[in-house]
Structure formats: structure tokens, C-alpha cells
Amino acid sequence: MRSPLAHAALVLPALAVLAGASAPRAAGAQPLDLRDARARDVAVRFERSPRTDPSTLDASWGDPLPAHLERRADGLVRIAIAGRLVAAHLFEGERARPESFADFVWLLDPATGDVVEAGFDGVIEQEVAWGFATTVTEARVRVRMSTLEPAGFRAPRELFGKRLFRHCDPRVEPGGEACRGVAAVPFDASRGYVNAVGTIEVETPIGLGVVSFSPLGEAIFLESAGAGGAVDALAGVDVASSPPDLR
User: Fold this and answer.
1) pLDDT grade, residue 194 (50/70/90)?
2) How do beta strands 162-164 and 157-159 pair?
3) Cβ atoms within 10 A of the Cβ of 232, count?
4) Is 159 part of a structural domain of the chain?
5) What angle (nearest 5°) sits at the alpha carbon of residue 100, between those of residues 96 and 101?
6) Using H for helix, E for strand and C for coil, what is the string for the chain?
7) Which of 60, 82, 199, 223 is deepest in the core (most CB within 10 A)?
8) Number of domains in the chain
9) Is 174 exposed, middle or buried (CB count within 10 Å of its CB: 0-12, 13-18, 19+)?
10) Range of the domain at 193
11) Which tens digit of pLDDT belongs to each residue from 119-147?
12) What is the mean pLDDT of residues 199-215?
């Protein structure tokens, strides 16, 4: 019999897999102009290197996904990627429940380039073997990241054949191998590049859970023009459906 905690852990490697490797910038696409306050459709790419080492950055990039940008009343730039796209692309191969996924919302400060907060919630269904019987249980996923707070990871731990990188705070565990910090990078206007750091929390119905370092905050934001076939293929998808207003 496998524990629900182990099945929660199985979700984590899938979070790091995005479909399609490609160059960092699509032909003709320009870096996002964060100073442009117009509401408009934009595009985003996520880093998709194999997560054998979470400190590996800016190596391999996925295809562009559509997103929607608007300036909030408080001056922050809000970029939303539809929850259905999050379920389809960040959880490829998993039994994600698309209707359970909130939009992947990013809040950026156009004055400093900082990611004030980025995150989403969703539910993954997992098959659990109880002796000779198999049942389906839910694992709730919560992702929260920013460039304002440091984050790092501890040495990997094997759990039922899966390698997990537990989250840690390098301010509490400075130096050495106990907690390896990963640099947060505010928005770089020359490329549209950003690296927000934080946590992935996975919790089972009986309250067991695991908190791992999140590799989902490394992205390149682009103006949508020339973003390529991936955006065209997803035309008609609501890119801002009932998003949470992260605060």
C-alpha cells in the first residue's frame, strides 16, 4: 500500500515539464514592454530544462502560450494565463482537472520589474493502490512565487523513485549545501526575462503534504505579435477566465 504522501510527491516532477523545446524568442516577437499600460494579449514562455538541478537556469525554453495583460488600479501589471492552459501544458500526462485550475496570475511592479506575486491553484487526480484495490484521490496544488523573497532547495530526497527538492529559506540556512539559494531575477526589459522563486505545496485530502522548491517562475514575456503557431493554435481559449486577484 502506497501512502497518500507518496502520491502527492508524484505530482511534483510533472510540474517542471512543458511541451516543446525551442529558442528563447519566437521569430518576430519582441520583449514585453512593461511600461505600456494598454490592456492587450501577450505571450509567455517557460524554461523547461530537466529538473535534475533546480539551480540550472536559462537553458531550454517551451513554446509561447497566450496570456492577457492589464494595468491594475494600484499600478501593478497583471498578466494572466488561463487555468486550462496551465492544466494542459504544465501538467501534461497527469490527470489534471482543468476546471479546478485558477489562472496563473503574475503581478509585476513596472517601476522596479519585481514580481510581487505569481501563482495558481489546482487539483490533480491520482490513482492510489490500497492492497488489491485501486481508488482515485485528489491532490491539491498551490504555487506561490515572487522576486521579493529568497528561496532555495535542500539536497534531493528520493521518495518512491521520485527525486524531490524540498524548499528552504537561505536566510535561515545560509551557506554550504544545507540550503542552496536560487537567485530571483526581476523583469529584464531587454529580453522580457524574469525568474521568480518560491514554493509548490501539494496536499492530500487527509492533510498530508509536501513543500518543494518551485521551478515554474522562470519565464520570458513577449508581445503577442509573431509569437508563433502555439498562440494561433490556442485561439479562442479564454485567457483570463475567472482569475484570482492575487494580493
Assistant:
1) very high
2) antiparallel
3) 9
4) yes
5) 80
6) CCCHHHHHHHHHHHCCCCCCCECCCCCCCCECCCCCCCCEEEEEEEECCCCCCCCCCCCCECCCEEEEEEECCCCCEEEEECHHHHHHHHCCCCEECHHHCCCEEEEECCCCCCEEEEEEEEEEEEEEEECCEEEEEEEEEEEEEECCCCEEECCCEEECCEEECEEECCCCCCCCCCCEEECCEEEECCCCEEECEEEEEEECCCCCEEEEECCCCEEEEEECCCCCHHHHHCCCCCCCCCCCCCC
7) 82
8) 1
9) exposed
10) 4-233
11) 999 987 776 666 677 777 788 889 999 99
12) 82
Phi-psi region of 161 (alpha: psi -120 to 50; beta: other; left: phi over 0): left
Four-CA torsion 105, 110, 111, 117, nearest 10 degrees: 10
pTM over 0.70: yes
Q: What are the tens digits of pLDDT across the range 87-97? A: 877 666 666 77
User: Phi and psi at residue 18, in whole multiples of 5°?
Assistant: -115, 145
Within-domain flag for 193: yes
The answer to whether the CB of 220 falls within 8 A of the CB of 61 is yes
As a whole number of angstroms, the distance between CA 119 and CA 216 comes to 9
For cell 479564454, name the residue: 238
Residue 239 lies in a domain: no
